[in-house]
Structures are given as structure tokens and as C-alpha cells.
Write a structure and sequence with these properties.
Layout: E1 5-9, E2 15-16, E3 31-35, H1 36-60, H2 64-67, E4 76-79, E5 82-85, H3 86-95, H4 104-114, H5 119-136, H6 140-148
Antiparallel strand pairs: 1-2, 1-3, 4-5
Helix pairs in contact: 3-5, 4-5, 5-6
Length: 149
């Protein structure tokens, strides 16, 4: 069984008894006392705290249902099977107006935004189509401008 307390020789590393003033191996007086009782208590206390924390986490872990944020004020839209925030969607529609040559996907997103009941979203979509008309002079955008406002 290992010693619970001893004096360690700094020269050779031998574990001497507590009553020795000199090392039994090299005769050095550079002995340092080590008490393992206190260290063992700290280790056991740390392990017990870890186990207690794991048990408490298991007992009181949050359910997935509670983790979902439910915000009634902010609408959620689905774009390509991913939900996005209303404000993000509105900003995206406005930013699409800066595209010089919009493709079919851009046009579809803006036309879909015109179909919602929200006035801010409709206005942003119409403004985007107006910008596209000014930059491309494509007359197909006139149909949407007339129907939007």
C-alpha cells in the first residue's frame, strides 16, 4: 500500500519516511514533505461534484419543446424549405432591387412577396420591381407594378 505522507528527496526522488532528516539513498538534506490525505480528499470531492452535476443535468434537462422560441409578433416565412424571420425576409426583398439582371428565382421570390397580406412586404416588392424595370427596361415588370399598387 502506498504511503499517505512522506518526504521526497529533491536530489534523487526517493520517498523517505517522515521521521528522516536525510535521504536514505543519497544522504541529501533537501527533503520536501508531501501529504496525500488532503489531495485525495480534493480528488474525491471533485469527482463527487462532477457526478452530482451530471445527475442534476439529467433530472432537470430542458425539453426540446421548451427550447423552441415562440414569437407571435414576428411572422415566419418559408423560403426553400427553411424558415426565415419576417424582418430578414423584408430586408432580402428590398436588397433584391439592387440586382442589375434578376434571374427567375429572384423574380419568383419578389412576386411571392407581393402575394402576402402585409403592406410593408408588398410595398418592398413593388419598389424592387420598379428598380428592376428602371435598370432593365423590361416591360414584363410593368404588369406587376400596375397590379401591386
Amino acid at each position: 500500500m502506498a504511503k499517505e505522507s512522506y518526504k521526497l528527496c529533491k536530489n534523487c526522488g526517493y520517498k523517505n519516511d517522515l521521521d528522516n532528516e536525510r535521504c536514505d539513498i543519497c544522504g541529501s538534506e533537501k527533503l520536501v514533505r508531501f501529504d496525500l490525505k488532503g489531495k485525495n480528499k480534493r480528488v474525491y470531492f471533485s469527482i463527487s461534484l462532477l457526478i452530482l452535476a451530471a445527475v442534476l443535468f439529467y433530472l432537470f434537462k430542458p425539453e426540446k419543446k421548451n427550447l423552441e422560441k415562440k414569437v407571435d409578433d414576428v411572422g415566419i416565412f418559408v423560403s426553400e424549405n427553411r424558415p426565415i424571420n419576417y424582418y430578414t425576409y423584408l430586408r432580402s426583398i428590398k436588397q433584391l432591387g439592387y440586382i442589375k439582371d434578376p434571374d427567375e428565382n429572384d423574380e419568383r421570390a419578389v412576386i411571392r412577396a407581393m402575394g402576402y397580406d402585409d403592406e410593408d412586404l408588398k410595398n418592398a416588392a413593388v419598389e424592387t420591381i420598379k428598380k428592376w424595370y428602371k435598370s432593365t427596361k423590361n416591360k414584363k415588370y410593368l404588369v406587376y407594378i400596375d397590379s401591386g399598387h
